[in-house]
């Protein structure tokens, strides 16, 4: 039986990993512990265990943020964006790989280049285009912006994965009578499942937690997403930590649960895409 000798190098590696893990967990500790404290206790000693668990913070945050409405808005925007981005990017990547023309190669280079453009450098022109199209202050306008911003990375990830799918499988399906659309949805798309799940998870985390773009497009209070509703507790001169922290916990709980359930697909999808691409 093979046994690994416990060396000083291994001990040092484990110690460093434990310290890094604690550093990542520390913000969650402060968030959860302080979310059930009164405001005064948060200000005096934010690191201590709560003397009294003030669970009313959550009920007040739920009411003041109109959490059900904000949650519904976030769900609609996130689900619509993620589904459309994944589908359009997968179809675009499939077309670029299978129709390997000069035009498609140039288009792919443009998509790759778009990945490195900072959003802050285009947000004012983007907002002007949204106003010109008449979709400002609407979910449709926000979803359209997310599609344009999320497509480059998603298409890039799909592109490497599609290249690994044997062409013979598609040819056999064509011989059996499948048209190009049926080949994609019945043959190719199921084979893209690892990367499809990765794209869905990454875009969910991005859209659900995004604050900047919704703050530029959505002004109506009844259209606020969870980040916008939570930001209402941070004023210019005062910050209502006893309400903001419970609101943050309520906001991140659904997406954290979603991530924990599907996190293995991120590693599988990216690893497979990098090897196959």
Topology:
Blueprint: H1 8-34, H2 39-44, H3 56-64, H4 67-98, H5 102-114, H6 123-133, H7 139-162, H8 167-175, H9 180-191, H10 193-209, H11 212-217, H12 226-231, H13 241-276
Helix pairs in contact: 3-13, 4-5, 4-7, 4-10, 5-7, 7-10, 7-13, 8-9, 10-13
- Distance linking N and C termini: 38 Å
Number of domains: 1
Largest sheet geometry: none
Net shape: globular
Using DSSP, what is the number of strands?
A: 0
State the secondary-structure class: mainly alpha
Order of helices and strands: HHHHHHHHHHHHH
Strand-residue proportion = under 5%
Please tell me the CATH architecture by its name. Answer: Orthogonal Bundle
- Count of DSSP-assigned helices: 13
What is the radius of gyration? 23 Å
- Please bin the fraction of helical residues: over 70%
CATH-assigned homologous superfamily: MetI-like
CATH class assignment: Mainly Alpha
Low-pLDDT segments, ≥5 res: none
| CATH topology assignment | MetI-like fold
Kindly report the average pLDDT value: 87
